[in-house]
Design goal:
The chain has 6 helices and 9 strands; from the N terminus they run E-H-E-H-E-H-E-H-E-H-E-E-H-E-E. The protein has 207 residues and is of the alpha/beta class. Strand 8 and strand 9 form a beta hairpin.
């Protein structure tokens, strides 16, 4: 049984999807053992407590830079004996000290089809605003491993939704979350926990 540590910064809707998936048996051979938040008082912590999941708060504002903050996160991950780290709306880019120590063991969900609308500065509604401004006909989400570059790690799973003419960023965001993120993120976590993701030449393949 693999230990899953989830990093959060906000409401925790993706965390809830993972909790529900674990309870329903979708996530096999893995359990959420800790939720770490980058801010105090975020609702994701309540979701964890409501499901008897241990929590830790490591406030980003208490650290001078991303390197010192990343070292604190790394120490916590090691203490929690994390087998898999999931970024679920975690709003801090981690330094390579973390991504190197947990290479191909950190999973993130990005609300677009990488390599479109991704990289530094593309997060939250900004992603959907950019997709609508470009006039794409489909969008979606990408579940990928995290490396030292923003949104540049090996892609595990992708899913799409149609973009409708009267979509707003908020409407598109909701459609992608409900139809792609909340389904594929637990699926990717389960694949990892079952040792069904193979890395060949820096690319991820499901076996």
């Amino acid at each position: 049984m693999k230990n899953i540590v989830v990093l959060v910064s906000g409401g925790g809707t993706n965390l809830q999807a993972l909790i529900d998936a674990e309870k329903s048996g979708i996530i096999k051979n893995g359990r959420i053992t800790c939720v770490i938040a980058s801010k105090e008082g975020v609702y994701a912590l309540e979701r964890a407590k409501n499901n008897d999941i241990p929590t830790r708060v490591i406030p980003r504002k208490n650290y001078a830079d991303s390197v010192s903050y990343s070292k604190a996160i790394l120490e916590a991950l090691n203490e929690e004996k994390a087998d898999l780290v999931v970024l679920a709306g975690f709003m801090t880019i981690l330094d390579k000290c973390v991504t190197s120590a947990y290479a191909y063991k950190i999973i993130n969900v990005h609300p677009a089809l990488i390599p479109s609308f991704c990289g530094e500065g593309f997060y939250g509604l900004k992603v959907h605003e950019a997709a609508l401004a470009y006039g794409v006909k489909v969008s979606g989400a990408t579940i990928h491993f995290v490396n030292e570059e923003a949104d540049a790690g090996a892609i595990i799973l992708q899913g799409t939704v149609n973009v409708e003419r009267d979509d707003t960023p908020e409407i598109l965001q909701r459609r992608i979350m409900e139809n792609v993120e909340w389904k594929l993120l637990p699926q990717a976590v389960s694949l990892f926990c079952q040792d069904r993701i193979e890395i060949i030449g820096g690319k991820a393949y499901v076996k």
